[in-house]
TrEMBL record:
Location of this chain's protein in the cell: Cell outer membrane
Species of origin: Thermodesulfobium acidiphilum
Similarity annotation: Belongs to the outer membrane factor (OMF) (TC 1.B.17) family.
UniProt-recorded name of the protein: Outer membrane protein TolC
InterPro entries found in the cross-reference section: OMP_efflux, TolC-like
Amino acid sequence: MSLIARENKYIKRIVFSFLLFLISLLIYSLSPNLPTSYAADSNETNILTLEDALKIAKENNKTLQAQYYQMQSAKETYIQALGYRLPNITGSLNYERIRTMSTNNASYGSKDDFSYSLNANQLLYDFGATNSYIQSVYHTYKQSEKQYLDTLRQIEYQVKQSYLNVLSAKQLYDTAKEGLNLANLILKYTQSEFDVGLVARSDVLSAEVEVQNAKISLLNAKNQINVSLANLANVLGYDPRKSFTISQIAYKNSPKSISTSFADQIFSIAIKNRPDIAAIVESIDVANYTLKNLKSSLYPKINLVADYSRSDSKFPPENYSWFYGITATVTFYNGGQNISKIRQEQDTLNYLIKTKDNLEDSVKLAVWTDILNLNNAYSTFELSDAAVKSAEENLKVNEAQYKEGLNSIIDLTTARNNYIAAKNQRIINEYNYYLSLATLERDLGVKFFNIENY
């Protein structure tokens, strides 16, 4: 084989390998990628965690989106206000056709008139009025930013509440299903006992009634799941008919009480993190700078002005003029309007300061109430846990006694109902605990609160 033939063969191998690499890369890029936030097994259903739900609501919730655009509008107003520090330059171009007439309608002919001008105006000093106005607008923007965060705080609580509602509804549905299974089992026991003449027909009828009631409870529990899912979809910004598969838990930490000795420390967290408190602090700054702006209006405003103009009957005009100078403007008397505005703004400032103090007191009360409610929910949850164990043991005893003919269908049905009621109450108490925790997080102004540290 010649040298040229070997080189051609070598080049063909390189080209073939390169094409194979490109094809492999194309196939890989077109293959579906599984989201990292969900299960790796493609056969598993996507699981919506509470953290996922909070992220989705932040992006999709309509109320939050409206608040966001209001915040952006305030930001643009601030950017506009910054322009008051810069020169104001305007230009004009004019053309006129002038025809001069005498009183007896005699015409003296017509002529063209061309003119253009360039004007400049630069603020030199206004005793801080412009800077105060800009700062006022800036803090108005920051206030809208805090209001957005406060809306987010409320939305996050709604998401947690809706998510917990779905979890609770699913658990109550499982209990209702267990109740139906127990009712069917009791009916089976009773029917077999009736078949051999050990119980009356009325016992069978009573057991059948319990089965029907259990079916009704199961239907209601299923409907409650659908309603809870619709509410969750709505707060996430989706169509209420959208369905989700949610995680089995919302919070990773187990129920725990809070030591009241940490109350002052928890209060300080709320005062520091609550966006509505931060918003009213910004509004106080707005009032302060507005007050400075109004006081500055009592003093002269000094501007540098300049003008350059050209005019002629032909274009481009050749006759020109220019000037520059300094102007000072001051209001000597306007019926006391400025003084009245200053007094009004001072009253507004005092009102906002008192409102902030009142809000901080309200926040402390809300947080303290949340701590009490959470500790009470924890205690009732602990008691309900013990109640479920007792009710389950009582049910087993009554089942054994019923099989031996030592008690009636009424005793067995009562034991079954007590067991289901105890499980339902345990679910409700657990829901109340985590809802109390979500309420505490809302009133603290935090997304999640590490209760283990308190």
